[in-house]
């Protein structure tokens, strides 16, 4: 059972209604996570702003989805695992084996694998990575800016993981459950 109530977009007012209208026009629906974030338009706006900014970053949508899966698995967030598995497969067209490997921090491409490993290291060490961790991801071919973007993707996904785990958000995607608890 949910612990925070999702708003009905048809009954929302003010800034929440405006944000929901924008999401509806872009996605064709307002996912439950965003409906729940709408209880505080500041929370929803913050999520949308960072998500939009990172979508325009140099890492691209594919790596962003893979990082989201690695972080969601590390935080046992079934909502995010479900959402990003669906988005990764249906919208970004990532094969299911690659999606599953990302949850384990792995990829056949060594550069992508380094980013996923770094993302998981950030979660594990709560952001307190060492020089060796940063040097390793940079040696794989990431610039200082791209390392910053990986950190930002991790932060965005930790936020959504914590939000959904707190809210116990109803999953409105095909359900995927964490293998680690």
Q: What does this 3D model show about the protein?
A:
There is one protein chain. The chain has helices at about 15-25, 30-35, 40-55, 60-75, 80-90, 95-105, 110-125, 130-140, 145-165. With about 180 residues, the protein is an all-alpha fold. The protein folds into two domains: about 15-55, no CATH class; about 60-165, AhpD-like (Up-down Bundle), CATH 1.20.1290.10. Helix 4 packs parallel to helix 7. The mean pLDDT is about 95.
Number of strands: 0
CATH class division of the largest domain: Mainly Alpha
Instruction: Output the number of helix runs.
Output: 9
Structural category: mainly alpha
Distance between the termini: 19 Å
Helix content: 55-70%
CATH superfamily of the largest domain: AhpD-like
Summarize the biggest pleated sheet.
none
The CATH topology assignment of the largest domain is AhpD-like
Q: Could you list the spans in which at least 5 consecutive residues all have pLDDT below 50?
A: none
Categorize the overall geometry: globular
Organism: Flagellimonas hadalis
Pfam family, one: CMD
InterPro entries: AhpD-like, AhpD_core, CMD-like
Domain Carboxymuconolactone decarboxylase-like: 41-84
């Amino acid at each position: 059972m949910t612990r925070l109530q999702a708003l009905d977009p048809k009954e929302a007012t003010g800034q929440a209604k405006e944000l929901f209208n924008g999401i509806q026009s872009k996605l064709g629906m307002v996912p439950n996570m965003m409906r729940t974030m709408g209880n505080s338009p500041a929370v929803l706006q913050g999520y949308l702003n960072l998500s939009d900014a990172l979508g325009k970053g140099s890492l691209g949508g594919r790596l962003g989805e893979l990082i989201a899966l690695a972080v969601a698995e590390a935080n046992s967030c079934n909502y995010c695992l479900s959402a990003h598995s669906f988005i990764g497969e249906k919208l970004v067209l990532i094969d299911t084996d690659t999606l599953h490997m990302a949850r384990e921090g792995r990829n056949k491409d060594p550069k992508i694998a380094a980013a996923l490993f770094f993302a998981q290291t950030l979660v594990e060490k709560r952001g307190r990575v060492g020089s060796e961790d940063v040097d390793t991801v940079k040696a794989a071919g990431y610039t200082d800016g791209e390392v910053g973007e990986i950190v930002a993707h991790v932060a965005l996904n930790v936020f959504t993981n914590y939000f959904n785990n707190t809210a116990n958000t109803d999953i409105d995607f095909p359900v995927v459950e964490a293998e680690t608890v």
